[in-house]
Please model this.
Amino acid sequence: MPSSFTPDDNGLNDLFTPIGAEMPDYTLQIFNRWGQLLYSETGKPQWNGRYKNQLLPLGMYIYSIRMHNPTDPIIKTGTVMLLR
Model:
């Protein structure tokens, strides 16, 4: 997982998404530091740093990614820095 991204619409590092070849479908959730769910999508989602269509401020956000493996789901959590 990337440790930071810069959603400034310059075409470079604008989206937060897992990096890996041929990843299965997954659920990506993003939370703020108070635990409020800001983003949740399933499939092959990519977070653009927005909540309710507003770009969020610079800061650290918490992610949870659940890879859909029928026999043994894999859950990873961590933090990502939204930079400008």
Summary: The chain has no helices and seven strands.
